[in-house]
């Protein structure tokens, strides 16, 4: 039978990596369903319903989301909660309505409380207050997890509904956003150090002390994890989750300080100047690490180390340096 797999958000960093990995795994492009935003407004229930009734996919990867850094989350909280809630509610409900049994929802590590234990286990969900700056986005992502769990609880036995969720750590790689104001730390530093190298700057000054610890995962490793979790047989997946705790963390399990990260990016890019830190600026959380032992026990491990991944990311930046969104 010709399997049809819908990747919502196929142009985004994670969605495009899932497409690359599915094709590399032997699937034909004829197996994959895409719609651009211009072709399908995922916040429109009527449009999403018409799409699912017309295509009836066998599997769905829900990688579509409105995303951004601290500045964007602070500036547009209504857009972040509304658009993400609407997209996931429409896709999950309409997937169930047409009989899709396998769906994978992609969340975010920001679902966990600001003061969650480190490393953060899946069981930390809903145990404390969220980080205020991205609370609207986090609540939308928590709602997506609970949508999947609720449809499984109500329709798992009668309809075979099997909707799963994965929570990635900080991702980077091809397709990242290098916008000077709205990007995350790795693409922001790649841009900063590249521009400093081109300009011949003697020093690059970064916010904070450089001491916070962060975990990073190359996006194609994330895509491989998504496909791995999607295709686990139900008995194996159920044995490692519970109906009320069915999401799975995806991380590298390795931490670096922001200073170490900056040093590595400077080396990869070839920046020869100095690196200074402005300790009067905020550091953010001292540590953010995912507990990915559940996924490791299910047979997945990351393959791309940080230095190798940063080289691949920098090559992608150079390819798109002169694109209109830079």
Map the helices and strands.
Blueprint: E1 5-8, H1 13-24, E2 32-33, H2 45-55, E3 59-62, H3 70-75, H4 77-97, E4 102-106, H5 135-159, E5 162-168, E6 170-172, H6 185-199, E7 203-207, E8 213-218, H7 219-231, H8 234-239, E9 247-250, E10 255-257, H9 258-269, E11 274-278, E12 287-288, H10 293-297, H11 306-319
Parallel strand pairs: 1-2, 1-3, 3-4, 4-5, 5-9, 6-8, 7-11, 8-12
Antiparallel strand pairs: 8-10
Helix pairs in contact: 1-7, 2-4, 4-5, 6-9, 6-11, 9-11
| Biggest sheet architecture | 6 strands, parallel
Radius of gyration: 20 Å
Write down the CATH class of the domain at 5-174 and 217-253 and 288-304.
Answer: Alpha Beta
Helix content: 40-55%
Order of helices and strands: EHEHEHHEHEEHEEHHEEHEEHH
The proportion of residues in beta strands is 15-25%
Binding site for NADP(+): 9-15, 106-109, 141, 168-171, 184
EC number: 1.1.1.271
Organism: Pelodictyon phaeoclathratiforme (strain DSM 5477 / BU-1)
GO molecular function, one term: NADP+ binding
